Recover the amino acids of this structure.
């Protein structure tokens, strides 16, 4: 028996044996791990993830701030009594306060006294104001249990009937406007997020197609050695999942650093006018656990989106590989 | 539709047969090999491969059928980022086999084709002859039912060409049908085998 015959016979016999006991060594991935197109794709995914996370952070911030405003406003109602000649303002205020306090769901009702009213008007009318000499409306602040709100309709009817010139403002208009504003902002933010995720998917499709064209020779060879389409797709999917995860993680970490940076800035400048202005608008810039969980979710969604998009793109590419590579031998 | 490259071509490749496919450049040798390898569909006519009508073979069946066909490309088609060893092991890897089950066989085959010392080298470092041997080893590793070789000795010296031819003959004796497309008359003269000559798109067979 010649050496070749022995070799080939052994080969046939050995190919069927399962355990060979040879030392396993790490093999190079079939799709090369690093090339210029791959690095560009990681960068694009990182940027898209960063922007998506910032959008989500902004949406979370607006939603939480709006919720805080809403709660604060909903905790209070105001009874206003307009002055009129012959009206005993002090008695009217006391009467209104007693009526409000009598309702269940009202935690406290207090009259804004003359000094406090003067302070409220100070920015417009200056100091040293004699509040009694001016026809200034007076207020009763009603603190409400937000969990069991009083019957405002009944309270309003009773006040209007019993106390002259009294009106009840339960801030419903403000709350409704705030809710509408918050909903609009959240919807816009979510739409922007959806657009960004779509743009990411499209970017991945183009990047995958580019990588496919760049790795066409690999696909051809895999075809020739009998690789099935799902196997080839899985090789590319693994490659791009890794690229997607790298990019998404980098973008997510970048966004978290920005959030932490803002939080640090706002807490460091807590008492300054700039920070007060920002805090008045956006709350305290804390994204909170739900924001960070959202960032994590976006990172995972973008990585999975990359892998899924790649899988579909590769399969559709493979469908046409024979016709698109007419010089394949 | 382009010009008709092959016409009135009719032949049968019996199991365990050995034949040369020759003819001038542009006669359609590579096209015929591509048709046999199913990387090209005939515009008309019938091709039956392993008892199956080519036109009825589905996309899912194609890779499984191709596993019975070994191909040696004229331009080697080695993957530059994989070592010689990994290139030769590729057909086994795509079948999902564990490396430990084939490592010894791949090393043994590489040693036999004279690449034992070059197994961890990347193809760009290999010489033309070494690349050719690696490409042949890749086609042989699974002991295919048919081997199609496009100019397999085109880049090697006569001594190595004889050695490679001997390897292909041994493979044939073990049951693999072999088709060697070549211009090399010297190579064909070494073996008394069927010659299929393509000329002007027509095929003549000399048994």
């Amino acid at each position: 028996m010649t050496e070749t015959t022995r070799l080939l016979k052994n080969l046939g016999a050995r190919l069927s044996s399962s355990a060979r006991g040879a030392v396993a060594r790490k093999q190079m991935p079939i799709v090369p791990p690093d090339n210029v197109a791959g690095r560009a794709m990681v960068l694009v995914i990182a940027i898209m993830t960063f922007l998506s996370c910032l959008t989500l952070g902004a949406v979370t911030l607006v939603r939480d701030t709006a919720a805080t405003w809403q709660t604060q406003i909903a905790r209070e109602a105001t009874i206003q009594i307009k002055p009129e000649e012959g009206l005993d303002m002090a008695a009217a205020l006391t009467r209104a306060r007693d009526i409000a306090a009598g309702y269940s769901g009202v935690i406290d009702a207090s009259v804004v006294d003359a000094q406090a009213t003067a302070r409220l008007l100070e920015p417009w009318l200056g100091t040293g104001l004699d509040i009694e000499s001016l026809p200034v409306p007076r207020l009763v602040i009603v603190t409400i249990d937000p969990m069991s709100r009083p019957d405002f309709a009944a309270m309003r009817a009773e006040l209007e009937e019993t106390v002259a010139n009294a009106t009840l403002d339960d801030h419903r208009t403000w709350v409704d406007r705030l809710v509408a504003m918050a909903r609009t902002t959240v919807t816009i933010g979510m739409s922007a997020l959806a657009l960004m995720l779509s743009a990411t998917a499209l970017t991945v499709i183009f990047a995958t197609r580019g990588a496919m064209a760049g790795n066409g020779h690999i696909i051809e060879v895999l075809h020739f050695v009998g690789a099935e389409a799902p196997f080839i797709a899985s090789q590319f999917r693994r490659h791009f999942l890794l690229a997607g995860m790298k990019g998404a993680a980098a973008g997510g970490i970048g966004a978290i650093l920005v959030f932490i940076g803002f939080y640090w800035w706002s807490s460091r400048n807590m008492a300054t006018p700039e920070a007060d202005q920002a805090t008045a608008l956006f709350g305290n810039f804390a994204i909170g656990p739900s924001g960070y969980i959202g960032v994590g979710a976006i990172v995972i969604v973008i990585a999975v989106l990359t892998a899924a998009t790649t899988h579909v793109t590769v399969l559709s590419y493979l469908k046409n590989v024979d016709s698109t590579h007419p010089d394949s031998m | 539709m382009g010009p008709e490259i092959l016409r009135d071509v009719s032949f049968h490749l019996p199991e365990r047969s050995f034949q040369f496919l020759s003819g001038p450049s542009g006669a359609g040798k590579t096209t015929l090999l591509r048709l046999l390898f199913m990387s090209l569909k005939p515009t008309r006519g019938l091709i039956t491969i392993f008892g199956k009508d080519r036109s009825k073979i589905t996309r899912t069946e194609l890779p499984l059928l191709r596993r019975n066909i070994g191909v040696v490309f004229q331009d080697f088609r080695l993957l530059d980022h994989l070592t010689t060893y990994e290139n030769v092991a590729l057909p086994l890897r795509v079948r999902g086999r564990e490396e430990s089950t084939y490592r010894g066989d791949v090393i043994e085959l590489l040693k036999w084709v004279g690449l034992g010392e070059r197994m961890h080298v990347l193809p760009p470092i290999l010489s033309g002859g070494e690349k050719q041997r690696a490409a042949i080893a890749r086609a042989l590793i699974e002991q295919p039912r048919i081997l199609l070789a496009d100019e397999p000795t085109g880049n090697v010296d006569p001594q190595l060409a004889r050695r490679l031819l001997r390897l292909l003959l041994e493979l044939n004796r073990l049951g693999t049908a072999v088709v060697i497309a070549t211009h090399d008359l010297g190579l064909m003269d070494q073996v008394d085998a069927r010659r299929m000559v393509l000329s002007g798109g027509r095929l003549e067979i000399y048994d």
In short: The first strand of chain B starts at residue 18 and ends at 22. The two ends of chain B are 34 Å apart (CA to CA).
